[in-house]
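Task: sequence in, structure out. Protein: HUTU hydratase.
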Amino acid sequence: LTVLNAGRRYLKAEDLSGKVFVTSGLGGMSGAQAKAAVIAGCVGIIAEVDEAALLKRHKQGWLMEISNNLDHCIARLREARKKKIALSLGYHGNVVDLWERLVHELDTTGELLVDLGSDQTSCHNPFNGGYYPVQLGFEEGKQLLSSNPGKFRMLVQESLKRHVAAINKLADKGMFFWDYGNAFLLEAQRAGADVAKKGANKTEFRYPSYVQHIMG
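Result:
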């Protein structure tokens, strides 16, 4: 319903075939995102750093394909988008790499390859394993979290700034991004990322929450 309503309200589209939804998280509640994309008829690319979570969703049939190769992900995205095929593709990697690759495609080809975007990392708990920084692999991140939590925290905040910078570039070109109630925008703001709504008070963000703006 969230994906369908985002398409209806912000893309003015009842039919989401050929539309692309990019997000992250295939763990607990976030595991439903892959299934939601296919039910809605769009192309869903979902990033997940934890291979165990990715493989679990694939085995369950909630995720149609998995890949750890961004070139392959972009090629499949283009193909499914062009043919208007419903697809859920799990990218085994950091979502920041995926967002920055989409910015690179926009900068080099002029193509905006994503229509809808969100995030379901566990950003309510970003410094204790809920969000892994793009600068490190998953296992490296776990080791650093254990050995030097202060440095891990610093890298998470740097990663959040990169995360938002990429989303902002794509949103400026027409992608619609929303907050999925996981404290992503709040933690990004605390990290110093550019998420403030211009001309509004400090508690308002430039991107809406799914509760009030989409489900409501």
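The longest strand covers residues 43-48.
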